[in-house]
Automatic annotation (TrEMBL):
Keyword Transmembrane helix: yes
Membrane topology: Multi-pass membrane protein
InterPro entries: ABC_transp_permease (IPR001851)
Domain of life per record: Bacteria
Main location: membrane
Keywords, in A-Z order: Cell membrane, Membrane, Transmembrane, Transmembrane helix
This protein's record includes keyword 4Fe-4S: no
Subcellular location as annotated: Cell membrane
Protein name: ABC transporter permease
Chain residue ranges for the region called Disordered: 1-27
Organism for this UniProt entry: Phytohabitans maris
Membrane spanning residue stretches: 36-59, 71-90, 121-144, 151-171, 196-215, 236-259, 265-283, 295-317, 323-341
Length: 349
């Protein structure tokens, strides 16, 4: 009996006397570098692209300059804000393909209020944002309370807004934007372009909305498991409707900024933002918190595409490179997001 007990004690103490660690601990030790690459791979790739274009002889003279950095940041501010607009309903697994059309429409609305109606600039800006919120509210109401497909509704709304834009402008470009708005879109504060300040404020507001409010937690719950959200009594329909209203309002901010940057408004000008915005969101879902749509990931996604295209353009790439790069980014990002989602489901099981 004593020998048997002693044998058991030796077996218990063996792992503390130099024996190999448990298999699970070993796997965790070897897996963390892969997890780190999975979480921050796109961030590292962005850094690598920046270094490459800084050292490549074809771009090394212009790419690392302060003027080029400011140019990238200011030019991409509109796209980032449009992407943040599309991000809000996408957290609840609802697509908004009307973001670009809302950007164009709110730009026209702001210009008409400021120039033709000759109302104060503050009212013109508020009017543009409210127009965006109203369009988003209509989208959200139809999608949430009629259980309509978000892709179809927002695509139809995009087409409808394109026609309204033509009706409002009469195929003309609206000019005469107030100088203070132009100054905001093209000047700097503390050496940083003013649009970048607006981008930062909008990103912080959306991050707070999604991460630190009950509304944001409800959106995440709906996106993760909508049937369970309904079972526990969550106001799913109202939350989805408000998500589209918030999306429209943020897209309205992008529309006002577009007007401030260009000094003019015309039908269809903002429609080109939809695809790059979605590409940025899905690219962002593969980094930092893989499988989730986040503000930080979206910022990385936007600037990954922007820096790549900027560097290629400076190197003399032809016009077809940008649409090909954007399209490829969408395909690869959606595929990667799908793979990550499957891995998360397997891990949950």
């Amino acid at each position: 009996m004593t020998l048997s007990a002693g044998t058991r004690d030796d077996q218990v103490q063996a792992p503390h006397d130099g024996a190999p660690p448990p298999a699970g601990r070993s796997r965790r030790t070897t897996a963390w570098p892969l997890e780190l690459v999975e979480r921050f791979g796109l961030v590292l790739l962005l850094g690598g692209i920046v270094v490459f274009f800084c050292l490549w002889p074809a771009t090394s003279d212009v790419f690392p300059t302060v003027a080029n950095v400011r140019n990238i940041a200011a030019n991409e501010s509109i796209l980032v804000i449009a992407a943040l607009a599309a991000l809000i309903p996408l957290v609840a697994e609802r697509f908004d393909l009307s973001v670009g059309a809302i950007v164009a429409t709110t730009s026209i609305a702001t210009a008409k209020i400021a120039t033709e109606w000759e109302l104060p600039l503050v009212l013109a800006i508020a009017g543009g944002v409210l127009v965006g919120a109203a369009i988003g509210l209509v989208n959200g109401f139809l999608i949430a309370y009629f259980n309509a497909n978000s892709l179809v509704i927002t695509l139809g709304m995009s087409t409808l807004l394109a026609g309204i834009g033509v009706l409002w402008t009469g195929y003309q470009t609206l000019l005469g934007v107030p100088q203070p708005l132009l100054d905001f879109g093209n000047l700097s504060w503390l050496g940083i372009p003013r649009p970048v300040w607006l981008l930062a404020a909008t990103a912080l507001a959306v991050a707070f909305l999604l991460g630190f409010t009950m509304f944001g937690r409800r959106l995440l719950a709906i996106g993760s498991n909508e049937p369970a959200s309904r079972l526990v009594g969550m106001p799913v329909s109202r939350t989805v409707m408000l998500a589209f209203a918030c999306s429209g309002a943020v897209a309205g901010v992008a529309g006002v900024l577009l007007l401030a940057r260009t000094g003019s408004a015309a039908a269809g000008v903002g429609t080109g933002y939809t695809l790059p915005a979605l590409a940025a969101i899905f690219l962002g879902s593969t980094t930092i918190r893989p499988g989730r749509f986040t503000v930080a990931g979206t910022l990385v996604g936007v600037f990954f595409v922007a820096v790549s295209i900027n560097g290629l353009t400076l190197a003399g790439a032809e016009d077809w490179v940008e649409p090909v790069f954007n399209g490829a980014a969408v395909v690869l990002a959606v595929s990667a997001a799908a793979v990550i989602a499957k891995k998360r489901k397997r891990a949950a099981r």
